[in-house]
Design goal:
With 163 residues, the chain is mainly α. The chain has one domain. It is built from five helices and no strands. It is elongated, with a radius of gyration of 18 Å.
Length: 163
Amino acid sequence: MTVLADAILVLAGTLTALTAGLFFSFAFATNRGLARLGDTGYLRAMQSINVAIVNPVFLIAFLGPLVLLPLALILRLQDGWSAVGGLLLAASLLYIVGGFGITVGANIPLNNRLDAVDLVTATDAEATSVRGWFEGPWMRWHALRTIATTLAVALVLVAALMS
């Protein structure tokens, strides 16, 4: 394999791992801390996170694997189909469908719906209602994308070891 193919594989794996790590830390640290907040505090914190996360560093880590994982696969396929190609195909699908797809199809729409809520004027009962429709579904989708991206990282690591 070429140095370029190896570099693409390492970069794809690194960016995938950064995203999986972010999802993991959010699931097992940030969300646990946020869960201790009252309804309005929780919702305000999530609204703030939704704004803060859209930044160039995150976007590179999150969007990079969409291009780099399939590119790593294509570069590996130049030598013909192999087990490494199968691993990279599976990693690409897990990331594209499970990491990116769930985020865009489920988490972001929930975030956008939450961002439309004016918490300054919301009553305690309204905040409780908003948290009710937001938190559970958001957490379930987040758990799935965390699992998918973590599995994608593991497959990239195995593919790199086999290369």
